[in-house]
Amino acid sequence: MSYRVLVLISRLNEYRLDNHSIVPNALLHAGHQVSVGDIETLGIRDSTVICDLFALDREYRDGVPFPDLKLQTASAEDFDIVWVLTNPHPTLLLDAFQLLWVLNQRVPFVNDASALLFLNSKITLPAAVDREHLPTSYVSNSFDALNEVVSADENESWVLKPSNEGCGSDVYIVSLKTKNSRALLQSTTGNEICRYEMYGRPTIGLSRKYVTMQRYVPNVVDNEKRVMLSGGVPFCGFRRFHHELDHRGNVTLGNAFEGLQLTPEEDHFCRALGQSLMDQGVYFAGIDLAYPYVLELNLANPGGLNYSFRATGRDQSSEAIELLFAALEAKGRLRPRRTERVASAAANAERSCDMEVTL
Ligand SMILES: Nc1ncnc2c1ncn2[C@@H]1O[C@H](COP(=O)(O)OP(=O)(O)O)[C@@H](O)[C@H]1O
Ligand SMILES: [Mg+2]
Known about the structure:
By secondary structure, this protein is α+β, with helices and mostly antiparallel strands.
């Protein structure tokens, strides 16, 4: 069946070979009606959620300028499904999520607005992944609390990461053995001691930041994978290789990668996680996996289709769309269109004349 799909992205100068071009192209290719909207223009007009959007008339390649001139302000509600493929800009974050949430009350999303807000974070991992598949983790804004953990075992290393960033930014290793660690723990929790000393708490106000601290997983170097899930099925991704001078395996940082191969155990685990994520409103995701551990979940714009294509030459975007819509339909998440509802109601009415049908 063909659906009207609104893909929300943030505006770029030109298309790149990433989800923002790959997904709309694949949707079009599969016969859906696709509009691309700019998430930064979301608003409400007379109770209807609107945004600037354009109807995709053809598949765009990377390097093609984003077609500014075609953008028009229109209802974001006249769609069967909305696919949010970007995080709102930090300046607009809360308002944009509230707008998305209103929209999501009216139109199903590939990944629910609430899931995008709450589960796309290192903080909320325990709400999505079983304890035995998470490295021991702490979320805190207290230097003392985290320093106590690090000080408890000189042989243990820990990874500090901001809860809501990405691409390896501000991801640090700390351990009792390295002299930088206390400074990093202080910096990532807000430099409370230094700032209160320099300015005074009454002047500077609260000087704390949250950070997530995970136990360092040693096998990350030998076996780190990005696994893409569509409709709960691990269908593509890539294996990461770590640069010898960097502990982070993000490919955005220039690390090498190759096509994905999952062991039967990993595949089984990812399928089970895929099912439970769908129960939480997540149908398209990228998992950072160093089996048996999940390092993080990527729900807004997980890279995978692009790198897998680069590594293997295989374009799996059509497979992603097939798996996704099969799952959305099977779970009853896609409502039949109004015209189809009218037709089926008419057929029902014909079958049983005395039955009252409410449209
Ligand atoms: N607990 C960990 N143990 C070992 N390495 C880790 C751990 N967490 C993260 N890393 C490394 O740092 C990289 C970036 O961390 P990640 O949690 O994926 O955050 P980001 O959102 O920045 O990608 C990972 O791809 C991995 O190589
Ligand atoms: Mg990551």
